[in-house]
Amino acid sequence: MSENNEISSQFKEAILDIKSKPVYDKWWSRYNDFKIMHSHQNNSISVFLDFIKYLAEDKKVSTIWQAASCINKFLQIDYNISHITNPLFKAYMKQLSKSYVPKKSDVFSMHDVEKYMRESDKTTENLSVKVCMIIGLYGALRISELTYLHFDDVKSDGANFKVIVRQSKTDQAGIGHEFMIPPSPVADICPCRHIEAYINLFSVKEGRLFRKFSKEGKPLAQVIGVNSMANYPKKVAEFLGMTGLLVLLFLTFFNHYNVSRELYWPLLSKI
Q1: 10 Å Cβ neighbour count for 237?
Q2: Domain boundaries, the chain
Q3: What is the rounded CA–CA span in Å between residue 191 and residue 146?
Q4: Upper half-sphere CA count for residue 5 (Cβ side, 13 Å)
Q5: Could you give the 3-state DSSP secondary structure of residue 178?
Q6: Which of 5, 126, 207, 218 is the most buried (most CB within 10 A)?
Q7: Three-class SS of residue 219?
Q8: CB of 170 closer than 8 Å to CB of 150
Q9: Total-model pTM
Q10: Which fold has domain 3-99?
Q11: Cα(174)–Cα(113) distance, rounded to whole angstroms?
């Protein structure tokens, strides 16, 4: 190794973050492999842009920017070249950013809620999914809050259902809270009718609300736990033909993260 190369190598080690160095090395290696494959002998802006356009065939804009920045760092060190400030590169990236359409996740809307309630199978097991979905929707509940609901926590006043949440992750004082679920004039999507039908399946209405069912559709003493309930989104998504990560704007109980409940009350008031 020549003295200049040794100095260059030491300089690279000094200015590149140790954690990010593998990323820099990866893109520099891919850039040089591209040059060899296409018989490029220099590091001109045209060669640099050829590689960037090659990446643009299947890479996101953010990934292309990462690659360009990493390669440019090595070009600055070894050749005193900076292509990312070149007007041709800037113009190309601007055009690429405008034409890039990111792949969006499916959005779970109220229309999807109604479709699932109306068109999915009528088994007792699926009825528990629907009721879980309804209560989670109107109360903006987490999975843990749903699994710990008891029969005594869900009561009808003849028209509405009142739900009392006694345990909450963020309710350190143990005060609890309650909310109402109103009826709908449309029978097959009426939340109160679904809740009433579910509760009436049980001859003994004591203990935990959500329980498992036998193959014959008879209620069992075994309760539905957090892990089982966490599979409900997949069941709903498969029925609706959704792919990718669901953006659950309404069904926050499917969310494993600590989402502020206040974000959802404005949505619930419009239902």
Answers
A1: 20
A2: 3-99, 107-268
A3: 16
A4: 2
A5: strand
A6: 126
A7: strand
A8: no
A9: 0.54
A10: DNA polymerase; domain 1 (1.10.150)
A11: 31
Collapsing DSSP to helix, strand or coil, 136 comes out as helix
Smallest CA-to-CA distance from 226 within 168, 145, 130 is with 145
Instruction: Tell me the sheet residues that pair with 107.
Output: 247
In the three-class reduction of DSSP (H, G, I as helix; E, B as strand; rest coil), residue 173 is classed as coil
Tens digit of pLDDT for each residue in 63-85? 999 999 999 988 988 888 999 99
| Rounded-to-integer distance, Cα 78 and Cα 16, Å | 14
Asked if the model's pLDDT at residue 40 lies above 60, the reply is yes
Mean predicted confidence (pLDDT) in 212-226: 89
- What mean pLDDT, rounded, does the chain reach? 79
User: Is pLDDT above 80 for 107?
Assistant: no
> Band of the pLDDT at 96, cuts 50, 70, 90?
confident
Q: How many residues does the chain have?
A: 271
- The β-bridge partners of 178 are 164
- Distance (Å, whole) CA 173 – CA 74: 57
Radius of gyration of the chain from Cα atoms?
Answer: 29
**Are 254 and 143 contacting, i.e. CB atoms less than 8 angstroms apart?**
yes
pLDDT of residue 142: 82
For residue 220, give the H/E element and its range: strand 219-223
Helices (H), 16-164: 21-37, 45-55, 61-79, 87-99, 110-119, 124-139, 143-147
Amino acid at 244: G
CB under 8 Å to 225, separation ≥6 — which residues? 147
253, 143 Cβ separation under 8 angstroms:
yes
Residue with tokens 């999507």: 189
